[in-house]
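Worked example 2:
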Amino acid sequence: MAMTMTHTPTPKQQAHKLLDQLPDTATWQELAYQLEVRADIEEGLEDIKAGRVTPTGKLRQEFGLPE
């Protein structure tokens, strides 16, 4: 049985894909924003994998929000 290896794109490869998806009229600010959003998402996913999460109920309680 052959093992299939999945290739995880590098951040540079992912940035190229993101750039290709932006319109030619994109500004530097729009580009920077999209890169920052992507970096934040990746960081959040790593936090989830590492178990660095807080249950929603606990956050609601801390901020005095209804459950």
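The radius of gyration is 18 Å. The chain has a mean pLDDT of 92.
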